[in-house]
Amino acid sequence: MATQKLFEEQTEYLVNLLLQDEDDLDIGFRCMEDPVEDSEALKAVGQRLRQLGDLIDQEYMDSFTRDFQRVAAQQATAQACELFSDTVNQFCKERADGNLSIELNLLKVSVSLGTYVAKKMPALCREIKIAMQSFINSELQERITEAGGWANVQIE
Questions:
Q1: How far is residue 33's CA from residue 44's CA, in Å, rounded to a whole number?
Q2: How far apart are the C-alpha atoms of 34 and 13, rounded to whole Å?
Q3: C-beta of residue 10 within 8 angstroms of C-beta of residue 42
Q4: What is the dihedral of CA 53, 143, 38, 31, to 10 degrees?
């Protein structure tokens, strides 16, 4: 159970790093002020994920953003998380990058969608953060933990 809690704290820290404005590093997220174990490794993972670039076309991103905005406006957190998860999984099924593992494809798409929505619609940052964390914790935790945790995630 302690491993799950640590993973969730590290995931929250990583998502906060990813969603912060690159020009404004002092955004006041709680976990940014209270670093978690392996915070330097998490920062390195976050930087590599940002550098991956995204293969998701603009129309697909805009469509997802509109759908996510509509669901979030209804204050339906569970549905927003489900929409996020379904979208990531569907995109990976349709257009997976053959050079990356399944886990990295899922992670790359979730980061691409999340950062796009946060930049395009800053008012949805809280909701997209919750959806990203929920997806990573439910879909990727076991695989990342088995690989040795976030500090051992190999992103090239």
A1: 18
A2: 9
A3: yes
A4: 70
CATH number assigned to the domain comprising residue 147: 1.10.437
How far apart CA 131 and CA 77 sit, in angstroms, is 8
Q: Which domain holds residue 128?
A: 2-152
* Residue-level pLDDT at 125: 93
Question: Across residues 116-136, what is the average pLDDT?
Answer: 93
pTM, two decimals, is 0.82
Pick the range with the lowest mean pLDDT from 1-5, 9-13, 112-116, 121-125: 1-5
Pick the closest to residue 4 from 153, 105, 143, 142 (CA basis): 142
First-residue to last-residue Cα distance in the chain = 30
Sign, Cα dihedral of 53, 101, 109, 63: positive
Report the number of distinct structural domains present in the chain. 1
| Mean predicted lDDT score pLDDT of the chain | 82
